[in-house]
Each structure stands twice: as structure tokens, then as C-alpha cells.
Prior knowledge:
By secondary structure, the chain is of the alpha/beta class.
Amino acid sequence: MAKFEDLNHDLLVNILDIFRDDYGALYNCSLVCKQFNILTSRLLYRRVVLSPPFSPVLNLRDRGTLTEPSQFTSACLPKYASLVEELRISGFLSPRPPPLNVFSTTLFNAVRAAFCRLRVVELTPNTYHEDVFTQTLQALGDTSTLRDLAVNSSCTDAPRAPLITRIGHLERLELWDPTRAMLELLPEWLQRLSSETLTELHIKGNCGSITPGVLTGFISSPLQHRLRALSLGLSYSLTHDHVFTFLGSFPQLEELELRYYWQLKEPTVRLTLSQLRKFTVLYAGTQAKREVLGLCKWMRKVVSSSPLEDLTVICDDGNNDDGNTGPNISFDSIVDHLSKKHAKTLRFLDLRSSYVGTTALKALLSTCLNVEVIYVSASKDALTIFEQLYGQLMNLRMAGFKVRNVKRNKYKFDRDRVRNLMMAGPPAFRKLIVNGTVWKGSWTTEPDGNVVFSVEIYRPNKLPWERE
Length: 468
């Protein structure tokens, strides 16, 4: 029998790459032998995540030494530092100032000297000391490998905004809750970035400082021709017409994310996005039918001329998160539009927080035959309808349902029913979600050598710093 050490290197790389995003499995593989440890370390430390949990008590002994679970500390070691390509910092950092908190110095030294292959950096903590990233931003300005940057107000206030704008050669820029200081410098920075490499711009969260005049300042000739993905957060200063006029300046857009709020006046500007393939909508909870109809009509105006492949509609007010509270106002008008106008191109549909009526669901499953992933909120009859029609969805990989108007403890899906669904359905159908329970199917080998199809409730195997 061949030993692990005798296995072909290229074969092992391909096998371990299957677990690229399963940190728990990678960690277990790293304990097998020295060869496995070397190969899995490249995947384990490719992305370093630091996201301390909230603590209601101030620990006066905390000096930013990061005792909470994270691979950040070990990633700073010379053995692993050169493997780090992504650095993502979020959560609740200590607000204590230096020298009581040494984290800012540790991070600066790592970015300046150790993390020599950084391509992605995310600095979006919920709590922090105001100077925690000052030195790090200076170091990032001298980093030639950085291509993807995401920051929030911890990096965009008046003292730090000029440091941010020194960074060049970005392909993707993400700004959360942009400050006035950042917005004043942003047009010139975008002009420089778009002339080089920038193709994605995401301005998210609270964008109240963005007025029509500020929005117009973002438009430049290089950006108009290069931009492929765009996100725009919530600003009550912007009407639908302001946003549509702005979007019309970017005919090459392929991905778009917008935050919708209900307005009395409907948009009058005609929008043509002939390249748009992915559209994500965020909206607050709706309590009236006219609000839902207004939202659906607004979405139809955005995607009417697009070869739409992916539509995601997210209710982010926190009240309808489980899909079982609030009025069940149907989004059938947008579903009917998809069935009639985008049936040939639609592949991904996520309406988990948007109620879909029985008739609209039947039409969707009967016409959108190329769909790969579908997730909807519907009545208790939805699964029966799905069982009747899903056989013709030959590309289906995952289906999800949030069943409304029924008690969860009285609406259960047993393993045999799920197994029969997957066995009798499309060949790639391997994942079913019902009211938050995730079922995954796979072929397994029993001890006697027989190969059988089994279904289990999926529980992700993650390391402590990997959160849902």
C-alpha cells in the first residue's frame, strides 16, 4: 500500500482544493502528515479572518494580544506570513488606545513586512480605536499587490481619508457608510483608479451624504467604460430618477446592487442596461400592498432590457428575517415578469423574504427551465407544486422554501422524502432547504462496499473564527 508521502503532489493539490472553503476539513488534513501540513497551510492561511465577538465587559488586562480564536496570530509567523493573500478584520476590536493596546502595531508590522502577497484587505470593525488602522493604511499605500479593498468609517474619517486615497491599482473598491471627508476625495481617486484597473465600485450602508451633485461627480469617462459592477446604499437625498440617470451613464454594467425605499413619485427616466446579468435589491419591510407593487414595478424598470441571470431580493429590516412575520403580500408581479421576459436566461433566484403565490410559482417552475438555484417564501402547498414540476428543471442544484402561515414544529420534512426527491429529480439536485433546515445529498460507500445515495442534515464544519 502506498504511503501518504508517496502520493503525487499534483494529485494531492487537486484533492485538497475540493475543501478550499471547508476550514474544518483542511485543519484535520493538516494533522495527517508533514506533506499534508505543507499543502493545507497554503489554503488555511490564504484567507486570514479576525472577527472578535462582542464583550459586554471591558477587560482591563486586554492589550490586543488576540486571545480569541483566530489564525491571525499564527499567520504572522514567518512560516505562514508569505501565504496570506486575504486579510479580513471585522467584529468588535478593543477601543483601548496604544500603548495599552498593541494590536495596531502588530497589524502594521504584519502588513508592512510579513504579508507580502496581500491581494484582498477588509477593514470593517464594529468597534475600534480611532488610530487602530492609521499606520496600516500608510503601509497599504506602498503595497503593489493589493487589488481588492473594503473599508468602513474606521478608515474614512478626515485624518485617514487622505491615506486611503494613496492606494492605487485597485480592481475592486468597497466603502461602507462613507463620510463627507471620503466623498470629497472620492471623485479624484476614482478618476485615477478607473484610468488604471478599477472595474467594481461598491458604496454600501448609510449613504446619506451622497446628494445628486455628489453622485454626478462620480461619473468620469474612464469609469463609464470600465465599470462592470456597482453598489449604491441608502440615501434619502436621491430620487429614483437621480439613480436611474446615474446608472444610465454605465451601459457596461453586469452586476448591480441597489437599496430601495418607497417614494410617491414613480421614476420617469427610461433605463437601459443591456449587459446586466446580476441584480440585488435591498429593501425595508413592507406593510402595504401599494408598497410591494411599487417595488416590483421599480425592479421591472431596472431589468426590463437586461439578459438577467441572477435576481436576489433581501428584506433587511430585521422584522421579516424568518419569513413568518408580517403580512404575506405577494411579489407575484415581478415573478410573472421573470416568467415572461427572462425565462431563457434566469439561473439564480433568491426571494426567501418575498412571498410568492401559488399561481406565480407554478408559472415560474414551468417556464424558467434553466434555473439552477431557487429560494422562495411561499404557502404550505409550495412543496407539493415543486414535486410536481421540478423534474423538468434539468440544471437545478439547490431549492429552498420558507413556508408561511404554518407552525414550524408541525411542518417537518423527513429524510426519506428528501432522499426520494433528490433521487427522482434532476441529476445535479443535491441541496434542499425547508424552513432553515438544510438537507444535502451525496453518494457514499458502505462498509460492505455498496454505493448508496444518502441524505443528511447539513451542519457546516468550521473553525471558531469562521462564522455564518
